[in-house]
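We modelled the chain as a single entity of 147 amino acids. Its sequence is:
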Amino acid sequence: MWKALGVGLIVLVASAGGAVAENKCGDEPIAPEIPGVADMKQKPPMDAATIRHGAFLEIRRWQGSLKSYRDCLVAMENTDKRLAGEAQRSDKPDADKIKSFQQEMSDAAHAFDASVDEEERTVNEFHAAQVAYCTRSDVDRSPCPKL
């Protein structure tokens, strides 16, 4: 019985260690809610302008958080790359340790790529809402890009 409990505890600690390694930079910042095209077309002009501007500010704030998150991922990946290199050059390379560093580098790269995909999706949604706003004839188009 104690042997099974000990094995279970080892598995639990090992799996928790992997989860901690993946979350050294915390969770990816949550993307802001972007108004839909239909909302931008149906709202009164002043409400649509307020919503568009608010969404713009939220995206800028979120992108600042994304930058910090990505900077952490890059730093983590660089540190793991350096530590893996040192471990490989040691007199007695620890294959498990090297594999752990390589897994963390892979996880960081995957998290970075996922954040880029999320940013692209969110910015595309904002662009669609902005186009819906800027193509209206009853709104102030001065903040609109030339379409």
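As a brief sanity check on the tokenised model: The chain is about 75% helix and 0% strand. Residues 82 and 101 are 9 Å apart (CA to CA).
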